[in-house]
Amino acid sequence: MELRAKDRQTVQEFEATVASFEEVVEFRRMYGRPDYFIRVAVADAAAFEAFLMDKLKGLPVDLRLESHLTMKEIKPRP
């Protein structure tokens, strides 16, 4: 995800808000693009869409989102 606002206050508020979402299980600020990596745990594609529309797209910031859904877990992380 890319955050177009770069002022410190907006970034801090954005990070605190996203980190507070119960669906978020991993949240990282990245070097380069994208600005952020976010991993969420939801029940299904409909729940993922609801998370995007109700929470992320509802934030008062300009975001560019790119999402990927797991088709099949081949080897789980330890």
Please give a handful of descriptors for the protein shown:
Dimeric_a/b-barrel; Tscrpt_reg_AsnC/Lrp_C; two-stranded antiparallel ribbon; alpha+beta; Transcription regulator AsnC/Lrp ligand binding domain-containing protein; Alpha-Beta Plaits; 78 residues; 32% helix
Radius of gyration: 13 Å
Number of helices: 2
Query: What percent strand?
Result: 15-25%
Low-confidence stretches: none
Pfam families: AsnC_trans_reg (PF01037)
Domain Transcription regulator AsnC/Lrp ligand binding: 3-73
Organism: Streptomyces avermitilis
Protein name: Transcription regulator AsnC/Lrp ligand binding domain-containing protein
Q: How would you sum up this structure, described in words?
A:
It is built from 2 helices and 4 strands. A hairpin with a 6-residue loop joins strand 2 and strand 3 (36-40). 32% of the residues lie in helices and 19% in strands. The protein starts with a strand and ends in a 14-residue tail after the last strand. The protein has helices spanning 8-20, 45-56, and strands at residues 2-3, 24-29, 36-40, 63-64. The protein has a single domain (2-64), classed as Lrp/AsnC effector binding domain/regulation of amino acid metabolism (RAM) domain (Alpha-Beta Plaits), CATH 3.30.70.920. The chain is an alpha+beta fold and 78 residues long. The mean pLDDT is 89. The strands form 2 sheets. The chain has a two-stranded antiparallel ribbon with strand order 1-4. Strands 2-3 form a two-stranded antiparallel ribbon.
